[in-house]
Amino acid sequence: MTHTARRIGRSLALVLPVVLVLSGTLAVTSVPWAGSSSQTQMLTASSENVPVRAKPRAPQDILRDKLLAELQEEDPGVALMQLQRAVEERPSLARHCRSIARALGEAAVQHYGPVVAQTFSRPACDTSYATGVAHAS
Question: Which of 11, 37, 56, 83 has its CA 20 to 30 A from that of 104?
Answer without folding.
Answer: 56
